[in-house]
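Supplementary notes for students who missed Thursday's class. We covered one full example, reproduced here. Read the sequence, then the structure, then the short commentary at the end.
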Amino acid sequence: MLGFSVAIPTAASAETPAPRGDAGARCAIPAPPMGAKKIDQGRSQGVLRQTYKSKKISAYQTVLYYKDAGKSYGYKTKTWGGGTTNYGSKAGSGWGVTMRNKACGYLKIDAGSSKGQPTYFFVCRGKTEKTVSECSYYG
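Structure (token representation):
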């Protein structure tokens, strides 16, 4: 994608500086996009998982948002991608990103939506890529 950028405000102030200091602050999960509602949170198999829904942004925009927000927390994108189908009532979109921070481990976001429905997304943080690999299945 050449020359494409999406700016989505966060629930936190845009003036909030990138976290610094102890590893706990650096390893925090970035705030969700503005308008996203947390519907679940928990820990399973060594993974902290947060589940959100939003009527304001698409699955694609959600992943772009976290790719950008993760940089402020020292995460580097390892893999990302997804796609959209346009088959009438079965139209939908699914996107994901896996990021790594040497001090914190892995951050994975899985986002999806169906035509005319909110976007649901899962944000997971764990020590290894394997532990976050099935982020959307924990719960």
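Commentary. The chain is about 15% helix and 40% strand. The longest helix spans residues 59-72. If anything here is unclear, bring it to office hours.
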